[in-house]
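Box 3.1 A note on notation
Throughout this textbook, protein chains are presented in two layers. The first layer is the amino acid sequence; the second is a token string describing backbone geometry. Keep the layers aligned when reading.
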Amino acid sequence: GLRHTMAMDLQQRPPEHGHRRHHTRPETENGRLSSTNAPRQKWGDYPRTIGSRGNETSIARYSAQLIADMKLPEKLSSRCARLVSYVAAQNEVSLRDVGKVFSQIALLPKVVFEKNWLGGWTDILCVLLVSSVVDPRLHKKLIFSNASVDEIRGFLGASKAKTTERIQDDYNTLYDHNLTFWLVTILYTCGSDSVAENKDFPSWRSEIGKQFEEYGSPGEPKRIPSQIQKDWVDVFRI
């Protein structure tokens, strides 16, 4: 029969749940970053602090360099890099902060990379890794799924102007699909009903559960962040 409860042990999650069977998630970049073909950047090329007061392209370049130099798995690393770019545009983020985020990826257990997890699981993992470095206070709230909508919007820089697809019958030119996807994914783990009923988000909001379970019924979405933190992140903490 269909599975309607969330697996308590992430490592026992069937690998077939990693196969995407819908088109809700935005596409990510293909291809691996080459540490030999790409020109090397010197540390002096990057500002000490990047974010709302600095050059946003610097964080993308530096993230790409770290991914290549550390030989990190491309799929998860590229998603984290995308999230870091959004967060850095809204918050002051240091080069050391960026390094800490990607260093955590290098320490994750092998099960994270050896199975084809559905995108919601790895996206929430990225959210926890980035928030633990940039905003520890919010990170604790995210683990227990009690962060407010305004707090999450502020962290992502996801204003309503950027997450509203249409204004009456007209397409909103400020709408950012990828940013909205991050927002809705996080909000889902803070209360799926509120996401499904929120008409401010695009119609695909009702399908976001399929990012966590192929039939869209992961059981208790609010337990997902704490489960990921416990089984994937805290395992390498002393």
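The first strand starts at residue 49 and ends at 50. The first helix runs from residue 56 to 69.
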